[in-house]
Write a structure and sequence with these properties.
The complex is a heterodimer of chains A (165) and B (149). In chain A, the strands form two sheets. Chain A has a five-stranded antiparallel β-sheet with strand order 2-3-4-5-6. Chain A has a four-stranded antiparallel β-sheet with strand order 7-8-9-10. Residues 161-165 of chain A have low confidence and may be disordered. By secondary structure, chain A is an alpha+beta fold. Chain A has one helix and ten strands, in the order βαβββββββββ. Chain B is of the alpha+beta class and 149 residues long. Chain B contains two helices and six strands. Chain B has a five-stranded antiparallel β-sheet. The mean pLDDT of chain B is 78. The chains are: A alpha+beta (165), B alpha+beta (149). At the A-B interface, strand 1 and helix 1 of A face strand 1, helix 1, helix 2 and strand 2 of B.
C-alpha cells in the first residue's frame, strides 16, 4: 500500500475513523448505562423518602390517637379512623393514594361529613396498620406502607401509659 | 488508493481533530463522573465532611416534610400544641453511625425547622432554619430564611 500521491490512504482514514467511533461508542455506552442506573436509583430514593415522610406524619397522628379500642371508629385494611378532641382523624388508601382525612366520621354510614382530605402519597399499593391489643387497649401498632415500585417502609409505634408514642 | 480530496496536511489535521474530539469526549465524561462521585468520595473519607453532608441530608428531609405535608403538620400541632418531632435511629436518609432528630414548629406564616445530628446519642451537629410560605394564584412556595448553626 504505497502512497502514489499527496493525501493519505483510504485504509488509514478508515482505521482512524473506526478508532474514533469505537472510543465515542464506548464512552457513550458507559455514560448512558450509568445515567440510566442513576435515574432508577434516584426514582427509588424519591419513593423511599416520600414513603418515609408519609409514615412520619402518620406516626405523629398516632401519638395523638386514643388507646381505647372503642375510640377507634374504623380499623380495617387500608381504612383507619379514630376520634380526637378536635374531631375525627382518618387514614385511608384510595385508588393507590394514601389520604389523610380530618372532620366528622359517621360510623353507621361509614362516610365522612365536613371533611378535609389531604393526599399524603401517591402510587401506594398497600397500607396496613396491625394493632396489637391488651385488654381493650391498643398496645402497639405496626404500620406498613408499600409503593407500586415495591418499596416498603415500616414503622413500629408502641403504647406508653395509655398513649401511643 | 488515496483520498485525493485531502492533502497529506489536511489529512493530518483531520486525524488530529478526531483525536482531540475523542480526548475531549473522554475528558468531559471524566469531569462528569468526578462531579457525580466527588461528594461520595468526600463523604466516605472525611469525617467532618461526612457530618456536614449528614446534616444537610437531615435538613433536606425536614424541608421535604414541610413542603409536602405542611398543612397536616400545622393541624397536628393545633390538636395538642406540641411541635412535630421525629427521631430515627438510624435516620432513613443517613448512613450509620448517625441518627437524627427533627423538630418542626408551625408559626403564623412560617415553619421553624431544627435538625440535630446524633452520633451514638450525642449531638454532633445542629442546624436551624425558617421556611416562609409564599402563596400565589398558581403555586405555593416555601422560601428558606435565617440559617443558623
Amino acid at each position: 500500500m504505497r502512497r502514489n500521491g499527496a493525501g493519505f490512504l483510504l485504509f488509514e482514514f478508515m482505521l482512524y475513523l473506526f478508532l474514533a467511533i469505537v472510543i465515542a461508542s464506548l464512552t457513550s455506552y458507559v455514560a448512558v448505562t450509568t445515567y440510566t442506573q442513576m435515574l432508577a436509583c434516584t426514582t427509588r430514593c424519591a419513593v423511599a423518602v416520600a414513603a418515609s415522610c408519609a409514615l412520619d406524619v402518620l406516626v405523629r397522628d398516632l401519638r395523638q390517637a386514643p388507646a381505647e379500642r372503642s375510640s377507634w371508629k374504623s380499623i380495617s385494611d387500608g381504612d383507619y379512623v379514630w376520634h380526637t378532641p378536635q374531631g375525627d382523624l382518618g387514614w385511608q388508601l384510595r385508588t393507590q393514594s394514601l389520604v389523610r382525612t380530618s372532620g366528622i366520621f359517621d360510623s353507621v354510614s361509614h362516610e365522612w361529613q365536613h371533611a378535609t382530605h389531604s393526599v399524603i402519597m401517591d402510587n401506594v399499593v398497600n397500607f396496613v396498620c396491625e394493632c396489637t391489643y391488651k385488654n381493650s387497649l391498643i398496645e402497639h401498632v405496626v404500620c406498613i406502607l408499600t409503593a407500586t415500585n415495591g418499596t416498603s417502609v415500616t414503622r413500629y409505634v408502641t403504647l406508653s401509659r395509655g398513649i401511643l408514642v | 488508493m488515496t483520498i485525493r480530496a485531502f492533502t497529506s496536511r489536511s489529512g493530518s489535521t483531520l486525524i488530529v481533530v478526531l483525536l482531540i474530539m475523542s480526548a475531549l469526549t473522554i475528558g468531559m465524561t471524566n469531569i462528569w463522573f468526578s462531579a457525580v462521585f466527588a461528594r461520595a468520595i468526600v463523604y466516605k473519607h472525611a469525617l467532618s465532611e461526612q457530618r456536614y453532608y449528614a446534616t444537610q441530608a437531615l435538613i433536606a428531609y425536614g424541608i421535604t416534610l414541610i413542603k409536602t405535608h405542611a398543612d397536616s403538620i400545622r393541624e397536628q400541632q393545633a390538636i395538642d400544641g406540641r411541635p412535630f418531632e421525629i427521631i430515627h435511629t438510624p435516620w432513613p436518609t443517613l448512613d450509620a453511625p448517625y441518627s437524627g432528630k427533627l423538630v418542626i414548629t408551625a408559626r403564623a406564616d412560617e415553619y421553624v425547622l431544627h435538625a440535630h445530628l446524633l452520633d451514638a446519642g450525642t449531638i454532633v451537629s445542629q442546624l436551624r432554619c425558617t421556611l416562609i410560605k409564599k402563596e400565589s394564584d398558581t403555586m405555593i412556595r416555601y422560601l428558606i430564611r435565617d440559617w443558623s448553626v
